[in-house]
């Protein structure tokens, strides 16, 4: 009940400057009545109804006399400082004179005391001090309200900016995820086309048992591919298992012509990598390093630690590269796809490099950041 009724009422007062002004006027001036009663009326033992009534009346007159000052200061608020100071001095003197005259007149009328005008200077001095305090407090409240409004405006701007940034980040995330999915799913028809061609070739030469085994291995590999979300990462151990699953398919084609070597430390197996990031590298090694050779060759996968980065090398014993162009740019869809996927995951904080080995084969080096490599 308190939260639903009382708080909205306070918020309305807080936001309405007119309500604030009159509330402070009444509290301030009648607070002055209380001070006058305790410090003057009781002190001089003037506890008659006329004296007490005058104490209240002078506060009511103060409310009315000070009221025009608000509009005076509003009128000169945006002027230069000298005009504002002059208007404040004129307002203080003018209101003090009016209030002093009204106070003395009503005091004489209500209490029956005479010859009060001879003490006009003392009454005027007190009035000037009171109106000086009124003007100072008015400006304090006004500047505080301006500060609060500016603070509120800054908070709203910051909130709007934050909302815009959040919307932009969400849009970028959605676009990035869509790009990653497109790149990953692009691999499936590319790989599937090559594998189905191999199966077709086995069927033509009546190698039905090998073709059947290849189809079984293909179904297992495709199931793994579809079960893993393209925008997520998997452990290096899972990725190596997927590569081995793919190589079982190729071994059905090449038999003993395809030799394999893995050197992946156990300490590195828990590192996260993009799913199926090695498959196109191994596929290229098969296509360009192993298939053209009658004697086949070897594919090696080696993982090492280099200054907090995981370095994976896919090495084949094929003829290497002879193009003088950028190896990545001149490569087929597999390498280009891998480079784009790495860029989506790591921005520029990765390395994909191709170079010939001293023995004539090709080494594809993949270097990606890792926060938890242990030797």
Explain how this protein is built:
By secondary structure, the chain is of the alpha+beta class. It folds into two domains: 2-165, no CATH class; 207-369, Heat Shock Protein 90, CATH 3.30.565. It has helices at 2-15, 17-41, 49-76, 81-111, 120-204, 208-227, 236-254, 279-290, 327-330, 333-346, and strands at 233-235, 258-263, 272-274, 297-306, 309-316, 351-356, 362-369. It has a five-stranded mixed sheet with strand order 2-4-5-7-6, with helices on one face. A hairpin with a 5-residue loop joins strand 6 and strand 7. The protein is rod-shaped and about 135 Å long.
| Average predicted confidence as pLDDT | 81
Strand order of the largest sheet: 2-4-5-7-6
Uncertain residue ranges: 1-7
**Termini, distance in Å?**
63 Å
Question: What's the gyration radius in Å?
Answer: 44 Å
The structural class is: alpha+beta
| Amount of beta strand | 5-15%
Taking the sheet with the most strands, its summary is:
5 strands, mixed
Compact description:
By secondary structure, the chain is α+β, with helices and mostly antiparallel strands. The chain is 67% helix and 12% strand.
List keywords for this structure.
single chain, disordered N terminus, 10 helices, 2 domains, about 65% helix, two-stranded antiparallel sheet, alpha+beta, Heat Shock Protein 90, about 375 residues, five-stranded mixed β-sheet
